[in-house]
Fold these 4 entries.
Entry 1:
Amino acid sequence: MNKAFVKEQDGDADDDVPQNAPLPPGTRNYLTPAGYAALRAELAHLMTEERPAMVQVVSWAASNGDRSENGDYLYGKKRLREIDRRMRFLTKRLEIAEVVDAALQPNRDQVFFGATVSYADSSGQEHTVTIVGIDEADPLNGKISWISPVARALIKAREGDVVTLRTPGGIEDLDVFEIRYPSP
């Protein structure tokens, strides 16, 4: 069936589509100050630059006549829906965000949210990770979510502790050798 004859759903039906990692029930949406600022900047960019530009493209494409086979119009409308969906997602996440400044952490000898932890795994390979919020996790760049298995194993550990990480592949010991927090 031609897409021109398919009715698109309006409303909040697409809010159920996860845009990023969903929050587990009963958990809080912790963010570092930098993570909160990044989400706000993304929302502002979408609202002030990307969406207005796409509205202009759609308006231009609509003025060209037949919309059923107008690729610019169809793509533009789809992209506008994606932008609007992301804006709703970011707005909701920012409304429930709890900003935690790790620089103000009083117990700097233990691992908590916002800490940068260096540890060695069972094979002796060293890793350095920073424990951040769900919305700012980037494992390839060493930022892991506070609800990830590695972060959960490291929470409350001290330098010199050996913690147990349970993985589908078995149990692994992690040797914590450095804990750092941002300076206040």
Note: The helical segments are 33-62, 71-95, 149-154.
Entry 2:
Amino acid sequence: MFSDNLVRLRKKKALSQEALAEKLGISRQTVAKWESGETLPDISRCAVLAELLDVSLDDLVNYDSSRNMALDIPPKGKHFFGTVTVDDAGRIELPADARRIFSMEAGSSVVILGDENQGGLAIVRADAFLHFADVIRQKL
């Protein structure tokens, strides 16, 4: 997983092995060994790589596109939590990771936003949305 992710992310950033190696202060051969799976970087180097490639350390090391509808690794701070099913009453269950990352628990208030032209809905914590709305109002 790591080696495949590294190759994809490096290419997505339009970096050669040489350019990535230069940014890390290592040889191109070291990057080539990581990409071939022959060796692995230490954890501190992985953290630097994740920062350079604008992804989370967890996604750099563990992201499996086959479990995520073949989507690319999202940029750091962006998440894909998978699909959920709407039940007969119109309810969905938010994935545990989403609840944890966005501090949502039983009783949390959310705002549901929709865009008919885009065919999408968004769920935002109510306190975050209201704060954002206040900032907008102050600027008007």
Note: The helical segments are 2-12, 17-24, 28-36, 43-53, 57-62, 96-101, 126-139.
Entry 3:
Amino acid sequence: MPFREVNSKMVEATVVPGQRMYSQRGAMLAYKGDVSFTPNIAGGQGGLMSMIGRRVADEAAPLMTVEGSGTVVFGHGGHHIQVVNLTGDTLYVEADRLLAFDGTLQQGTMFMGSQGGVMGMVRGQVTGQGLFTTTLKGHGAVAVMAHGGVIELPITPGRPVHVDPQAYVAHHGDVRNKLSTALGWRDMVGRGSGEAFQLELSGSGAVYVQASEEKL
């Protein structure tokens, strides 16, 4: 179900009978109609691997199942919200950045090391995201949260995009990522913090970058 952006920090979703959606617990700001909210730890699809956001400590994303008939306004912590519409591809995003998403999307987790080998695991440590990331695949909408607003950068074959790992929010499409040393890259652009890494994304898709290095 599509989301309507109320403003940069709130979205409204239409809930219809027979179609469930999921949201982060505590993200409901207001609703109209006959809508129910049920705590759902496992993401609604059962099985160990459906526990989205699972990290080394086997933590699960605190989700709610949203069902019924009406409209719901979502927002959380005053964070900026970016709506991503998937058309059969996969979105890679951290569980704590998920505000709400269609229940039709297939949920899963991906080991960071599977994209970039050892460097994929290093990326998880540098970004503070751990060794697992969340995947959502199929046709539907996802509302993700970020600090300071988000820009969508297209990734096209032969034209990789380089991103500050701390500013990375999510990406989708047929994209490969690797973390590489930047040899003083951050110092040269006047943001030296002792971290000499940059995230390179290549292939075909898009990456979402926030205007801040803060974590949620």
Note: The first helix runs from residue 117 to 127.
Entry 4:
Amino acid sequence: MDFRKRKVRDDPEINLIPFIDVLLVILIFLMVTTTYSKYTELQVTLPVAHADMMPERPNELYIAIDAAGNYAINNHRIVYENPAQLAREMRIAAPEGKDARDPIVVIAADGSAPHQRVVNVMEAARLAGLERLTFATQSEAGG
């Protein structure tokens, strides 16, 4: 006969409180020592139009801007001085007649043209009272 008392063993437990304390200290350390980078430029992919070309409309004012930033209104090159001068040129070149009451300004800027040149055309259109603007695009296949 075995009269010895058997010892009841407790199930082992893992104490998580010190582990959580250590993780919080590490988290605070990482938050304090992290450096944040600021990007000076954004990677922008411009959209490509997937529509058929619109038929020619007689009440369009076509403004072209080449890669060097030169302007042409209805395929006539002009010298840019300021938005007010460009607005005068736009009013002169605007189509005349009964359908030309509110011409559409079509801005066709080269992909390499400075953005400020496009903004200059938009400002000149505002000064000239031309409220309808659109941008010319090319199809994905090019051309």
Note: The radius of gyration is 34 Å.
